[in-house]
Amino acid sequence: MKCRLSLSIARALITSGLLVSSASVFAITDLETNSAIPFSFSNPGARSLGMGGAFVGLADDATAAYTNPAGLTQLVQTEVSVEGRRVETNSPFTLNGNATFNPYAFSNVTIGNTRNNNSSPSFLSFVLPRGDWSFAFYRHELSKFNTSFSAGGTILDDFKINGVKQQVTPFDAASNLHLVDYGLAVALKANDHISVGVDFSYYDFSLTSSRNQFFNNRLLQSVVDFGSDHALAATLGLRLRFNDQWSAGFAYRSSPKFGYLEGAFGTDSSGNLITTPLAVINAQFRVPDVVSGGLSYHPNDQLVVNFDVDEVYYSKLTSRTNSIFDDGTASYANALRHLTVPNGTELHLGAEYTFASMANPMFVRAGVWHDPRHTIQFNGTPTDGAGLTEAVVFGGGYGAKMHYALGGGVVFTTSFLKGLQLDAAYDHSEKIKTASLSAVYRF
């Protein structure tokens, strides 16, 4: 049922482009499926993951092309690398219950949880060093997320129309987000202490989300987000080598924005979907910009300790939030303004120890990092029906979490495997769990 509805809606949107109600492009919408999307875009690489993502100041392998392109000047051999990841996401959403705004009470609302698993080849790269210059070509999968869940409906006790209590009606929801980055990075070693780099990226985006609303077990309305888009963006990187023990890195990632459509579809008296949309609006998905700084400390040849600070501009996601349900009133406009994702500061600390005396050196890694809130939530206290509706729909999001990571690897210096490095890592938190395997071949 869900698949047939989504496909019908997608075809209708494609063939009804002239019905778009406005030429203005807004930010993300308040469709219920967006409450479950974890807007998190981590750095690539099993090695980085094993150190809790602390890598900007070190940046000494192929994944530097994305994380800090200036670090590519440390590579002296041509290398090919590949990484595969499995990501398990536990996404909360509002299941059912009762809520009021006079006074505001959310305690009787039940939060459900949907678990999603995605596995894919997340990073592929080719690095070519040439003297003081280094060049890298890569494919990085920033996000591959899909989910589906059903909500039983929440009664809004003191939101009444003509004396009748209103409710967030029961619905089935599904969402599929895919975001891939194809990059070309160039780095220059200016001298023994300063390296600079730039990464030019071409992003490929696709989004399909649907919410099928039911009343008395009959399909009442369907809303769909649908679109694919492409965009260009860039990352600037700087690496400073102070001495044999200390180095620092800085990076600014200017991220892309993508357009898509949202359409609402009604049903006839028999509950059959009417494929001519009631309304269609333009919307926009904006990937957050990131400013990063990191320090790397090598007290000896075996140990390296890294510390990163990342400022992630999540607020771009919800600037000028749009809604196909907007009735044009001031109360609805005010409710949309309260849907936010605040900018977040990530703190990463990690270390790597090398057993260098072994015939094939081995590595152990560990890290911890603070992950700020990055799900959409209603910020404030609702004072009317429109605000209460948005507060309930986006009431299941989760706040800041701590992540703990472990990893290890081996580099083969003998036998027919010479030049091959294998790495594995696992990053654990309450809501997101990531497992990574990677291989690098140097020649």
Q: What fold name goes in the CATH topology slot?
A: Porin
Q: Kindly state the mean pLDDT as a whole number?
A: 86
Please state how the strands of the largest beta sheet are arranged side by side. Answer: 1-3-4-7-8-9-10-13-14-16-17-19-20-21
Helical element count?
5
Q: State the share of residues found in helices, binned by percent.
A: under 10%
The value of Rg in angstroms is: 24 Å
The CATH superfamily name is: Outer membrane protein transport protein (OMPP1/FadL/TodX)
Our measurement of the CA-to-CA distance between the termini, rounded to an integer number of angstroms, reads 52 Å
Query: So, CATH architecture?
Result: Beta Barrel
Using brief descriptors, characterize the structure shown:
443 residues; mainly beta; 14-stranded antiparallel barrel; two-stranded antiparallel ribbon; 5 helices; 21 strands; 9% helix; disordered N terminus
Describe this structure in words.
- The chain has helices at 2-15, 46-50, 64-67, 330-337, 385-393; strands at residues 79-101, 104-105, 109-130, 133-151, 153-161, 164-168, 171-189, 194-215, 218-241, 246-254, 257-266, 279-286, 290-297, 303-312, 339-340, 344-355, 362-371, 377-378, 401-411, 420-428, 432-442.
- The protein has 443 residues and is mainly beta.
- The strands form two sheets. The chain has a 14-stranded antiparallel beta barrel. The protein has a two-stranded antiparallel ribbon with strand order 15-18.
- Helix 4 packs parallel to helix 5 (385-393).
- The longest helix is centred in the N-terminal third of the chain and has 14 residues, at 2-15.
- The radius of gyration is 24 Å and the shape is elongated.
- The protein has five helices and 21 strands.
- The protein has one domain (2-442): Outer membrane protein transport protein (OMPP1/FadL/TodX) (Porin, Beta Barrel).
